[in-house]
Amino acid sequence: MRFLRFKSEPRRAYETLVKYHDFRKSDKNFFSQMRPSAMKYLLDSKVITKLPGNDVKGRPVLLLNFKRWDQEVCSVEDIIRLIMLFFEEIMRTQGSFPISFKAVHQVNQSKTFWLVSKILFSFFSAKLKNRMHIHGTDRESLAAHIPLSSLPVDYGGTAEGDVDTAFIDEMYKNEQYYEALANFD
Known about the structure:
mainly alpha, Alpha-tocopherol transfer protein-like, CRAL-TRIO_dom, phosphatidylinositol bisphosphate binding, CRAL-TRIO_dom_sf
C-alpha cells in the first residue's frame, strides 16, 4: 500500500516495489542487521538522529553529526544501514515509500568542505541545487528552514535535546517488524 500512496499510477508503483524488493534481496547480510537491537550502539552514539521537531513545512528532520562517528567502531556500511533504518521507520509511520529528500542543510562545515560542496553543486540539476543549503554558522539562515524549537541548542535552537526519543522508542517497540522485514524474501 505504501508504494501505491507514493505513486498514483499502479504500473509505476509496481515497478518501484519490484526494484525495492530486488534491492533488499541483493545483499541479505546487509539487511539482516538492519534492526534497532543490532544497531543500538550506533543509535546511542547519535551519529544520526531524528530531531524532536519538524522543519517549517512539517517534515521530519534527520541530523547527521559526523563528528560523533568513530570509524574504528562502525563502518560506512553501518552508517548507511542506520540511515536506511531511519527511513524505514519514517515510512512505516507516515505510510508511503519511497521517500525523497526535500532539503539537505549543511551547518558548521569547514571551509574546505564548503568549497568542495560549491563545486559539486555546480554539477547538480536546478531542482537538486534548490534543495541544498549551506548555512555555515548562520543560525538565522538555518532557522528559516527548521524552527528554533526543533533545533538543538548546539545548533542555535531551543530544543532540549537532539533526539526524538519517542521515535527511537517506537523503533525498539517494533523490533519484530524489522526482524520480519530483514527475513523477507
